[in-house]
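> run fold Acireductone dioxygenase
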Amino acid sequence: MAPEAWLIDENDEDQRLPHHRNPKEFVPLSKLREIGVLYWHVDPQNYESNEELKKIREDRGYNYMDILELCPGKVVNYEEKLKNFYREHIHADEEIRYCLEGSGYFDVRDKDDVWIRIWIKAGDMIVLPAGIYHRFTLDTSNYVKLMRLFIGEPVWTAHNRPQEEHPARQGYVKSLMENSGAHAVTAH
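> ok
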């Protein structure tokens, strides 16, 4: 199983809509791997005792975990928070999210600085590499329950674009160039 991912149109309609291009342009999991996005499908039932999740956490050193529910009524200043999550940014560390219930979209930039929308649903676990430009929004269901995983103490600092001089961004671009030749990843 793999998440649905596609290239998106860039218009000002509600960010919670799918924003498919016409015609639709789906992106395979292999293209996500090329830009450093990792994916697992892990049974979201009984996640507290799930052996696959336990192994992933051990193998990758994820020793901190919390649960976040995003929906109107559960988050103070819900609409404002959603707008903040949707601002294009990077993190100095990986962003690890495991969807337990509901659904939402992670948008990531590909090597040509084009948006790819990744639709996560219950059971989807993704890792966005440190330094990748991305953003998050709910879909029209307006609900998601996510497990957030971290190595060490949790850090939620978002560095809004542009961040070309940030060490995490420079490391990310360098790793892309090493893994795919000298294909540049620069802002347009």
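Strands lie at 4-7, 38-41, 64-70, 89-90, 95-109, 115-121, 124-128, 134-138, 144-150, 159-160.
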